[in-house]
From TrEMBL:
Designated name of the protein: Glycoside hydrolase family 140 protein
Record-level Gene Ontology MF annotations: hydrolase activity
The Apiosidase-like catalytic domain, residue ranges: 34-375
Source species of the chain: Niabella yanshanensis
Keyword vocabulary terms for this entry: Hydrolase
Domain of life: Bacteria
Length: 478
């Protein structure tokens, strides 16, 4: 009898361990209890993503490994990529000449027996997607997997539109989810640069939300209700999905490439006040080397030019300090993986440096410094506090200063878009001596000011006026 009891106990322990393992498999990325930030295995997680949209579609196995290796070294922990890519991804074959579907009317997957990459018949489109996802997992990188780009749902671009009803979208998403249900490094992202509701002149033309909701339900049917799902919008997901969309894990925006003047911090503030409360992220800020608003035929290098690494920093840092839960970087040569021997760039104004050279662009390296900076004070309770700034806070994207601090008031960080003198109200933090550090977002270096500062107003100046932007860090000694 005792042996049977021991056996039963062991079985119970095994089942519990299995359930815990299964649970962690699909909840590695989750929302913090404060509904403001993200966690991984119950620890703070700072989402630092690169938009490698055409990764599955345009790169070979060797190129994908190179790409993942470099991004891993630079500190990226999420790669956002699309199963059915934007640039005619379902009619133009991938690097190996394979298409995702054998029949677009029935959406029959083009699957073959085996997955040997040395056998061109056996190694199909989906085998290649499998390979890239597994290689990312080896490097502790999550794949932010978009089942499809939005143009396969919403007409008006390359398309073609293949998801026209809830049934087809549900069946496709369920099959995709079942294929990757045992992969620990999947983050699900719906949408893909398209509105969920088509509004024209204030009138609703068509509502595409049933299609996206059907995909979300299919993923939940496979993974469970706690699965993390985001939506990548063309502007702001909060205007499409509300309290009834309990499948949506975060609110997101795309501040995009149309202007330098986007006040992303205002959108973060607004998004965090919405009901129900969700973390907020700018899922597509301006891309480095992207032409500024190139779509109207009036773009020139001299009049509008390109977004620089400074433009990228100035937008992303202020979005994070206003309360954003993660950062998404993009380079205009990378997302499309420009290689003029194989494909043309999407805009005539594109700089033709090629994707491999763009891998080490200034902004890509600088994003790793941001991740390290945030990780120095990794907690769930950071919030914007404009009252830390006792001097002029600025007025627009050129000069506005954004400050953040922990709720327990033990530290603060302030982003200065200009290397100008600033007055900080140290009374906003706990009493006691303060350590003040200047952080250079370009090279990641730190300059600790001598002495200890007490409460009151401190007037400070960045150590180098030739470096355009700076971060001020204030720590209260315990």
């Amino acid at each position: 009898m005792q042996s049977l009891l021991n056996c039963g106990n062991k079985m119970i322990i095994f089942v519990v361990a299995l359930l815990l393992c299964y649970g962690s498999l699909f909840s590695q990325i989750a929302v913090s209890p404060s509904k403001t930030y993200l966690t991984k295995n119950n620890q703070p997680f700072f989402w630092l993503a690169d938009t490698g949209w055409e990764l599955f579609h345009r790169l070979s196995r060797e190129e994908a490994i190179y790409y993942l290796n470099v991004r891993q070294q630079q500190g990226f922990n999420v790669i956002m990529a699309v199963a059915l890519a934007e640039l005619d991804g379902i009619r133009t074959p991938n690097y190996y000449g394979d298409l995702p579907f054998s029949d677009l009317k029935t959406l029959t997957w083009a699957e073959t027996r085996g997955n040997n990459p040395k056998d061109s018949i056996a190694y199909d489109y989906w085998d290649h997607v499998d390979f890239v996802i597994r290689e990312a997992a080896k490097r502790n990188i999550f794949i932010g997997l978009l089942p499809t780009w939005g143009d396969k749902v919403v007409p008006g671009a390359a398309g073609p539109v293949i998801f026209t009803d809830s049934l087809s979208s549900c069946n496709y998403a369920r099959k995709l989810a079942n294929r990757y249900k045992n992969q620990k490094n999947i983050i699900w992202i719906l949408g893909g640069d398209r509105p969920a509701v088509d509004n024209r002149n204030g009138k609703e033309i068509r509502d595409y939300r049933p299609i996206w909701r059907a995909m979300a339900k299919a993923i939940q049917d496979v993974y469970g209700k706690r699965v993390f799902i985001a939506y990548h919008p063309n502007w702001f997901s909060g205007e499409y999905f509300g309290k009834d969309d309990d499948w949506l894990s975060i609110t997101a925006m795309q501040s995009g490439h149309g202007s330098r003047e986007i006040k992303v911090w205002d959108w973060v503030r607004w998004g965090l006040k919405m009901t129900p409360k969700r973390p907020f992220m700018d899922m597509e800020p301006c891309y480095e080397d992207h032409p500024v608003s190139p779509w109207d035929g009036k773009w020139t290098r001299s009049s509008r030019g390109y977004f620089t690494d400074y433009d990228v920093r100035a937008r992303i840092y202020r979005g994070i300090f206003a309360g954003g839960c993660g950062a998404v970087y993009g380079h205009h040569q990378i997302w499309q993986f420009v290689d003029t021997n194989r494909n043309k760039p999407v805009f005539t104004g594109d700089t033709l440096i090629g994707w491999k050279q763009a891998m080490v662009a200034k902004g890509a390296v600088q994003m790793g410094h941001l991740k390290k900076l945030v990780s120095l004070h990794a907690d769930f309770e950071r919030e914007e506090d404009s009252l830390l700034i006792a001097s002029d806070r600025g007025h627009d994207y050129k000069d506005i200063i954004i400050a953040t601090r922990s709720k327990n008031r033990s530290y603060a960080m302030v982003y200065l878009p200009r290397a100008e003198s600033i007055k900080i109200n140290l009374d906003r933090l706990n009493e006691g001596p303060k350590k003040i550090t200047w952080f250079n977002p370009v090279n990641g270096s730190k300059s600790i000011l001598p002495g200890r500062y007490q409460n009151g107003i401190a007037t400070l100046r960045p150590p180098d006026a030739t470096q355009k932007d700076w971060v001020l860090i204030v720590d209260t000694y315990k």
